[in-house]
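Mods, move this if it's the wrong board.
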Amino acid sequence: MTPGSFLFEAWQARQGLLSGLGVTLLSSIFSIVMATICGLAMGVALTFGWWWLRLLSRLYVDLMRGIPVLVLILFTYYGLALFGINVAAFWAGVIALGAFATAHVAENFRGAVESVPAGQMEAAKAIGLTFPRRLWYVIMPQAFRRMLPPWVNTGLEIVKGTTLLSIIGVVELLLASQQVMARNYMIVDFYLLATAMYLIINFALAQLGGLLERRFSYLRY
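Not the wrong board. Structure tokens:
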């Protein structure tokens, strides 16, 4: 590798870039897991909860979907500190992204549940299944298959949303790339490298979604 070439500079900066890539992956995974778990719970509340629980869930969903992600990130990091709650920048970003995506997952799950024919729930009730069993064995598998495509889209948005964490000082992939560019001025080369890395991450996530969709493709009602 010739000193001053792109490959040489990329090799010299490999630790910083890999560290930024790791932060992007971890923040994306934690946010997606949080959004999936909380979103499914909130989706159940939106569909089957008591009226006050449905109201609170609806207020949360509408509020989170109407606030820009950047505002949520800034509020989580700086706003909570005003109340004496100090959160590390990384976890503040994860919480903000997860809270934003939770609203989308909840709404997607609600729509998926309501798209399942009502006769499925009635048939499960007729054979004596309790509500948790009806939900777990009958409704959830069918709803999960229907919500997979929008869930994948939400995951892709989270990965792209991690680029906003740099505003609170989190050195994720994009900021790590910009730090390298500030030293060698190879702006186009390292932006293309960062783009390729994001494409690989999102392609892998899309393939995972496709694999899960094929896994649940036998559920056709």
